Amino acid sequence: MIAAHEDLSKMLQAEGVNVTLITAGKYKAEGNPYEPLPAEARANIQAEVDAYGADFTSAVARGRGVSVEAVRKDMGQGRMLRGDAALANKMVDGVATFDEVIRRMQASQRPVAASPGVGRISLERNRTQLAAVGRISLERNRTQLAGLADDRPRTPSSAEAIARRHLYRARLLELNSV
After folding, report:
1. pTM > 0.70
2. Residue 102 and which of 1, 35, 40, 95 are 20 to 30 A apart at CA?
């Protein structure tokens, strides 16, 4: 887990910019970038990061079937590991291409053991919804890109890439909904 605080106060001061924050709540503006981070705010943010880190470590330990200590000791401690190192440290079950993973996921799908046709109806409804989301996302991104100022690059392929990412996420959801 990581959190960042950017202190822009000196830069803003050098530019003659004075920011006034008006809040409801003692801690509402805690960690804002317009002033140095007070020790109390830093301690609170650190406590939150530590708590999220502990939750994540526990979830990994449960999911990998190892102790929390094993996760802390052997599983990267925040560093990225290559596939072979992750496999050696039991962080993954195997190394495969994206297409191989998708094929395995599709092959492992079992029909829903409910009323006849329920899984099919659910799958078709999800496919219809996901197709609509993809079209809407593509159109929204094309519209946003078309609205950019003339001095900025206009790349319709960017909108398509964003829409493809949405469709990819939607397909993964679809695979899990059967």
Report:
1. no
2. 1
DSSP letter string over 76-94? Answer: -TT----HHHHHHTTS-S-
Higher pLDDT, 147 or 16: 16
Cα(53)–Cα(42) distance, rounded to whole angstroms? Answer: 16
pLDDT at 90: 84
Euclidean distance between CA atoms 30 and 108, whole angstroms? 47
CA 139 to mean position of chain CA atoms: 23
Residue 74 near residue 50, CB atoms below 8 Å:
no
Nearest residue to 3 (alpha-carbon basis) of 29, 28, 31: 31
In whole angstroms, give the CA distance from residue 164 to residue 144: 16
pLDDT digits (tens, 9 = 90+) for 33-60: 999 999 999 999 999 999 999 999 999 9
Amino acid at 149: A
In this predicted model, what pLDDT tens digit does every residue of 4-24 receive, in sequence order?
Answer: 999 999 999 999 999 999 999
Domain boundaries, the chain: 1-94, 96-178
**Token pair for 115:** 């009323």
At position 24, the amino acid (one-letter code) is: A
Q: How far is CA 23 from the centre of its chain?
A: 29
